[in-house]
Amino acid sequence: MSRINMKNWISQVIQSKERMAIPIMTYPGIELTGKSVYEAVTNGKVHFEAIKALYDQYPSAATTVIMDLTVEAEAFGASITFPENEVPSVTCRLVTDYESVKALEIPDLGKGRIAEYLKANELTAEYVRDRPVFAGCIGPYSLAGRLFDMTEIMIAIYTEPETVELLLTKCTEFITSYCRALKSVGVNGVVMAEPASGLLSNDDCSSYSSVYIKKIVDAVQDETFSVILHNCGNGGHCTKAMLETGAASYHFGNKINMIDALRECPSDVLVMGNLDPVGVFKMGTVEEIREATLNLLQKTSEYDNFVLSSGCDIPPEVPVGNIESFYNALNEYNKKN
User: How far apart are CA 4 and CA 195, in angstroms?
Assistant: First the structure.
């Protein structure tokens, strides 16, 4: 494992003359190893081999683990569907009212696939020694939405806020425990995916997401472990609330104007994003990816804290040539600047 001082690493990235890239990307590695998505999300060794394949082939400034937003929900007892080569999904709500939320037990880390994800992270931390390794986890509001139903929780924050607050408290306690376990196996941080909070106003995002994320950040973030808050649902309306969390870095989706996000964020935190993972990486041509990458790099050139990335997790079945075009464009930009 590599105990990198993350505060120093962030400072070095900001001071670097070369632009760096950290795409949220693991699924293409599964294809490189000839395995299925199902195998990777259920077996920590297969998961690690996919990450290793990407690490060995591409020059990302950090290594990321699968962004699977069903792992924590499954640990609570939610039913999950597992397509062979698609991302898993929650099939139905687990809790429906205050009494069912009150009865909901906070799971231990032996439930569901948590152990397999800890194994994947530990193996990656042991193998990758020259750059940070970022685990993945879900944010508290997004987890609560999967347990309560996303439409229902949007209504419940107004009709029965005490139910939502209790559920969020339980989700936060579990995510904190999970992040502590991830930290203990040697990874250098976690990309916390909180896309559902992008459906909220800034004030509601603050009350039902950021307050709880800050508790997690305060519990686990230090010089050796950074929280990177990802919100691909934010179109620019709740960036202020995101910043209230105190996360070390922020990752934005392709819905937002990246310049607006950079203007709003402090200059001493990393701001990552935001090429469309489907419209650009998966559906674009090699030349379209080159143009989109260079265009984003040019637009963000005056912001030293910008890190080139995908707007969200790069999905399965992205052509290898498209990924290579992304990195080639980055190299092209760095040689000219």
Answer: 28
What is the mean pLDDT of the segment spanning 149-162? 98
| Spatial separation of the C-alpha atoms in residues 210 and 85, rounded to whole Å | 33
Question: How confident is the model at residue 1, as a pLDDT?
Answer: 47
83 φ, ψ to 5°? -65, 155
Q: How confident is the model at residue 2 (pLDDT cuts 50, 70, 90)?
A: low
The answer for 213, left when phi > 0, alpha when psi is -120 to 50, beta otherwise, is alpha
pTM of the model: 0.97
What is the spatial distance between Cα 85 and Cα 49, in angstroms, rounded to a whole number? 16
Residues 6+ apart with CB under 8 A from 326: 21, 23, 275, 281, 289, 293
Closest by CA position to 186, among listed 139, 251, 110, 120: 120
Per-residue CA distances from 15 to 19, 22, 195, 230, 261 (Å): 10, 16, 30, 23, 20
Domains, the chain, in order of start with CATH, read 6-336 (3.20.20.210)
